[in-house]
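Quick note —
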Amino acid sequence: MASTGKTLALWQKTTKLPLGTRIFSWGVCLRAPYFRTIRPHITELRPGFCEVRAANRRRVHNHIGTFHAIAACNMAEIAAGVMTEASIPTTHRWIPTGMSVSYVAKAATDLRAVAELDPLPDADDTARDWVVPVRILDTSGTLVVSADITMRVSPKKKQVAAAS
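Predicted structure written out below.
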């Protein structure tokens, strides 16, 4: 597999700084603003693995005062997306094409989403679907949400040089 790209290199660079994981997480939210709704904190990233944490704040509550299902889905999607971005070669791109979610238990605490693919699927000259499993756990380690996110991984379109 070709080397992974800018995202992983940026992670490795920023995490050496004070508050580096927070800076990186903020940068991800600048690129994909909707994720700011959950104030994610990416705490670990490597090819095939991403961990994201989010605090149980009023802004993510549903009508019964627990972590809203869609806020949990946002956690799953950011974990799967950042993991995929850090795992594919620079010659490829990805886009989510589907999500299957099971709400297993009420989420009344801070949450931790873990996206993990081991081993990593191949990324070659054909488009492939990677199904990324994401577990969302409460502070006691209880599974509260389980998601499988399908990522379409494909080679980037070749740029045709403009005729002069």
